[in-house]
Every structure is written in structure tokens, then in C-alpha cells.
Amino acid sequence: MLNFSVNEPWFIGLFLIAPFVLRISGRVRKIAFFALSAGLFVLALSSPWQGGITLVFVLLPWVWSRIGKGKWVKLPVILLLVLAFVYLNRYTFMYGFLGVPSLPFKFLGLSYMLFRAIDYLFQYPYLRAHTKAGDILDYINYMFSFYTLSAGPIARFEEFLEDFAAVPEPLEFGRILRLLNRAATGFVKLLFVAEIFHGFAKWGFAGLSGEKNHAVAFLVFAVCNALYIYFNFSGYCDAVIAFAALAGFRLPENFDQPWLARNLAEFWNRWHITLSRWIRDYVYSPLYKFLITSPMKNHLAAARILALFFTFLLAGCWHGATVNYVVYGLTQGLGVAVATIYKSALNKRLGKKKAREFQAKSAVKWIERTICMAYVCLSFTLIGWDMVGLL
Amino acid sequence: MDIKAKLQEVFRDVFDDGDIELRDNMTAADIEDWDSLAHIQLIVAAEKAFGVKFFTAEVSRLKNVGDFIALIENKL
To answer: Is residue A273 less than 8 Å (CB to CB) from chain B?
Structure first.
């Protein structure tokens, strides 16, 4: 069974060969991409059942979008996909009380497939009306793209189609060097820098259950854990985006100097950008729109806060299958809600012009950035580490 | 009143700023308070003002004010 991870030597070899195979245009490219992505997915399967269930999960939205008509028709299938996702990704704290046993294998890339499937369901009626919905091969390529299967970035179906149909940008020598440099930087971040911070985070975490220096241990753990997550994920994104560009595919960027964020709302526009964009369009926006058009139309601020909490709660749950992630989601919702309240309170108290001048001050900028990063580090301690036994 | 002028009223109302002058190439970067949160209020206010409904797929692909005006024109 193939280990589907970008730092596997076979994956790096594939990334280097792919530009020679996929820098072609037209239907041949589509078929070659399908053969590569589907072939790799099959080789990475741990059981035929895993393959069959994934195929049903992926094909259901495609079939449904062709059968069902009307505004609300996608809701049942989205609900079905979410329930299947909860079960298949083993969210045992949500269904364990029913006594249902989990399946004995894990599913590759299911979290990202769920997001892509929902994007497709929302986009399909619009794309069909504009005769650019693509065919089944386009859809399968979108769902199983080996560049983004395991951890994103989350491209939109329309972006994917347009990018696939476009003639690949020519590769002159300078550009090849720049892209290889970015990929190499990505691997240095992923394999060395992230691992160093991982080591320090482990040391800090172990120190929390020791006798002395809890404060120092926690500080080291919190800061190094956040740095580990950043270097690991942004390193992966750098490598994947650069290698995809070498083969003529443009993947969306996922990071934009997150440490410059002055509040949690800005942070989520700079961190895992494609996820933020997705949850904004498919969770936050419809929910907020629903709330301010009917049940809470006279309570805009309360509707906003409620929609934020619910959105980040779901985003938190999507990140992982333990209660830690539920709390993590709520802390992000709280952070964004506080940022929203702070901004409107500042505008109310000082007036828009003076509030702008106040926030332009360098000291204010740095204080806000420090508080934001401290909050991020603190909330990230809930990711990947079980703090429950230590608190 | 043409679409642009009517939409300008919507913008002024949502952002509580009587000085906003809409241009076709105007984006969220040109209006300080135009974040993703305000964007939804803008969509809801525009739906009410023009008596139309926008779909998620239409709203998420708007790039600037010109796109927004074109979308409203198509709906009327």
C-alpha cells in the first residue's frame, strides 16, 4: 500500500516527472491526469471497501446534481455527505453512544473531498446554465487531483476547470528556478524547520506533567506548537503549489504572512485562506443571510456573532474528530467575535476617522499583532495534543 | 434612477457613509469597512432594494462593483 504523503521519495519523483507528462493540452491531458490521480488513489487503498465507499461518496453529488432540480434539492445530499463524513472519519464522540462500530480503516482525503463535493453541488446549476459544467472526467480529476488530495489547498470547481482548460504558461529557465526554489524551501520548512519546532513542542508538553517550571514549559509548548503547525502546513503548500505550477496548474495560495494579522478576523484571511473562503461562502454567508432576513432581522450584531460561532464550530469539527477540535473551533469563533465587537466599539467611541488614525499608530499595530499571535498560540495548543489529561 | 445610482444608495446606507461614489472597478479594497461580513449585508440590502434574489454561486464570484451591477442587470 502506497503511503500518500508529499515527503515520500516516490511522491517527490512523481512531482518531478509530472511536468514532462502533463504539460500538454486538450483531452489527452485530462486523460493522463485522470490515469495518474486515479491510479495513485487505488495504490494507496488499504481495502477494496475503502475504494468502493469513497467512490459512492464522490459520485453521489455528481449523480444527484443531474437528477435533482430546484433551490433546496442539494440540502438532503449535503446532509447525507456530512453524516457519512462524520461516520467514516470516525467522529466517535458524536455517534459512539449509539453503539455503532467504526470501520476498521481510515479514508484518504475525505475531509477535502467533502468540501469539494459541496462546492460542486453549489456551483453546478450556475455552471450548467453557462454551459461550462465540464464532464465526469473533469469532476473526478477535481475530486482526486493527486496534488491536493490529502491536504488541499481547496480550489473551487470553476477555478479548477478554467485552469485545466488554459494553455500552461511557458516555462522559461528563470521561472523553473524560482519554482524549484519555492518547492525546496517548502521541503526545508516541512522536513527540518517544522521538525525542530515539533521537538521543542514535545519537550514543552512533556514538561507540563513535570514538577517544576510549568510556565516556561507551557510557553515553549504553545509557541513552538504554533510554529510547528505553520512551518509544516505552509511548507507542504509551498511544495505542492510550486510543483503543480511546474506541470502547468495554478493552485490557490493558502498563506499570506499570518503573523502580520492584527486580529483573529484578519488572521483567518491570511491563514488557510482557501478554507476561510470556503466556510465564508458556504456556511457563514448563507447562515448570516438567513438570520438577518428572518428570525433576527432587527438584531444584526447578535446575528453576526451567532453565525460566526456556528461557522467556526463547524470549521473546528472539520479539523479533527475529537472534542479538542470542538473547543478549538469555539475559541476561533470567540476570537473573531471579539475582533468584530472591538472594531465597532472603537468606531463608536472615537468616530471612524479617529479610529483609523488610532489604529495607524505603530505601537497600536504591534500591540494588536502581539495579542493576536498570543491568542493564536494559546488556541492552537488544542490542536493535535490532548491537553485534557493535563488540565 | 439607474442601477448604479440605486446601488450607490444601498452602499451608502450599509456602510453608513454618504460620501461613497461607486466606480465599476471598485473592489472591497477601496472601501475600508467592506469585509466579508459587510458583504452579506450588502447582498441582502441589494436584494431588498432591487427585488431580486442572488445565489451563493453568483455572490461568491463577484470581483468588483461592475460585476455586481451586471449581475443585477441580468436579474431585472
So the answer is: no
Contact B37 A340 (CB under 8 A): yes
Inter-chain CB proximity B57 and A300 less than 8 Å: no
Pairwise CA distance, residues A267 & A315, whole Å: 15
How many structural domains compose chain B?
1
- The rounded distance, in Å, linking the Cα atoms of A96 and A87 is 10
Q: What percent of chain A has pLDDT over 90?
A: 54
Cell numbers of A372, please? 493576536
Give tens-digit pLDDT for B40-58.
888 888 998 999 988 877 8
Q: What is the pLDDT of residues A58-100, one digit of tens each?
A: 999 999 988 877 767 888 999 999 999 999 988 888 888 888 8
**pLDDT recorded at residue B57:** 76
pTM of the model: 0.89
Calculate how close chain B gets to A158, using CA atoms only, in Å: 10
Chain centroid offset of residue A218 CA: 27
Cell numbers found for residue B41: 449585508
Give DSSP secondary structure letters for A110-138: HHHHHHHHHHHHHHHHHHHHTT----HHH
Under a CB-based contact definition with an 8 Å cutoff, are residues B30 and B41 in contact? Answer: no
Q: Give CA–CA dist A355/A350, Å, rounded.
A: 5
Q: Does ipTM exceed 0.90?
A: no
Q: Can you give the residue range of the structural domain that contains B35?
A: 3-75
For A206, the grid coordinates are: 512533556
B71: closest CA among B58, A133, B63?
Answer: B58
Burial of A205 (0-12, 13-18, 19+ CB in 10 A): buried
Closest-CA residue to A124 (of A67, A82, A51): A67
